[in-house]
Amino acid sequence: LYAEAQDFNASNLVLAALPSTVDSRTGGQKIHILKYPEISVTYDAVSRAAHDIWNKDSLIWADLAAAAGIEYAEEDTLKVGFVVHLGQMRAFPGYSFEKLANRDHYESKDLDGIIPETVTKPDGSLVEEKFASCPAVLRPDIDVDEVTASVKETVPTENTLLRASTEAGRFLCEYLLYSSLAELHAKGLQKRVVFAHVPSRNSEEDIAEGVKVVTELIRTVSGIIP
What we know:
The chain is an alpha/beta fold. The chain has helices at residues 10-17, 43-53, 59-67, 144-154, 172-187, 204-224, and strands at residues 21-23, 30-32, 83-89, 95-98, 101-102, 118-120, 126-128, 137-138, 162-165, 193-199. The chain contains 6 helices and 10 strands.
């Protein structure tokens, strides 16, 4: 995801440059990286994508898995072990791993000029209609502080800023993270999802750095989830 004012999408450039597989931290297995198609910068597109991402019958995941030669022991299962969402951020010159997402107060219009519909609660407060029954804040069931510290150990940090963040931006990036978490919350599933913001830079060196950071993020998360 990226802002309309940008003429490039650093997160999509990093995604495209990621390898199809990486070794696990223990070296005992390969981690397959399946790349979900770029999501349009609209609230509706984000909602539909989040639903599909956590749909065990997703045709997109099935096609990507088949192309990668992945076979599943059970067909009636989610096709991914965890998800790393990517977006780009101009407000911070480094990488932010987001610790939480808010349900409400998405007041910036998307590329269609739309904001999410809200409903009024008995106390007079406005909540996002689609998620009115969900908590105001959702968090991954992954220790993002632990993940951040681990990635810092494997990525040279003298020139690379890495942080765990609680400010995902209250726009489409945070809305995607909340939507993804809400899908898992509604299904009663472990919230195996992380959102990584990459800096808004697009040189070859910047993309290579982004690939290194995101690859280590994937390897780290893979090593700590059950």
